[in-house]
Amino acid sequence: MPSSSSKEPPYRRAPPELEELQKQLKEFLDAGFIQPSKAPYGAPVLFQRKSDGSLRLCIDYRALNKIAKGDEEKTTCVIRYGAYEFLVMPFRLTNAPTTFCTLMNKLFHPYLDRFVVVYLDDIVVYNNTL
């Protein structure tokens, strides 16, 4: 990992953001999406306000996106409650759409052009009677 991705202190948060951070952290842990990490580096976490006013958790993976071939440890993010790494593919990784599309094409290969179409993150299943 580039030295610019060293483990930096987590960003400071306003109390409403801390509350949302704790909520989303618990959801991700309970769902098995992340696990505690001992990686020597981590990407910073920030929030983006959505149009409905809710907060979307975002991880700044720009440094990671500059390097090739990754593994779970490289998805480590740092927050005030520790470091966590993803066990599933997170959003905003450069190769995530291509990797997902390739996996779906392999999975649905026997059915492609018969009754399944895969386009990026859309999967259409069709038949003549619908």
Automatic annotation (TrEMBL):
<feature type="domain" description="Reverse transcriptase">
    <location>
        <begin position="81"/>
        <end position="129"/>
    </location>
</feature>
<dbReference type="InterPro" id="IPR043502">
    <property type="entry name" value="DNA/RNA_pol_sf"/>
</dbReference>
<dbReference type="InterPro" id="IPR000477">
    <property type="entry name" value="RT_dom"/>
</dbReference>
<dbReference type="InterPro" id="IPR053134">
    <property type="entry name" value="RNA-dir_DNA_polymerase"/>
</dbReference>
<protein>
    <recommendedName>
        <fullName>Reverse transcriptase domain-containing protein</fullName>
    </recommendedName>
</protein>
<dbReference type="Pfam" id="PF00078">
    <property type="entry name" value="RVT_1"/>
</dbReference>
<dbReference type="InterPro" id="IPR043128">
    <property type="entry name" value="Rev_trsase/Diguanyl_cyclase"/>
</dbReference>
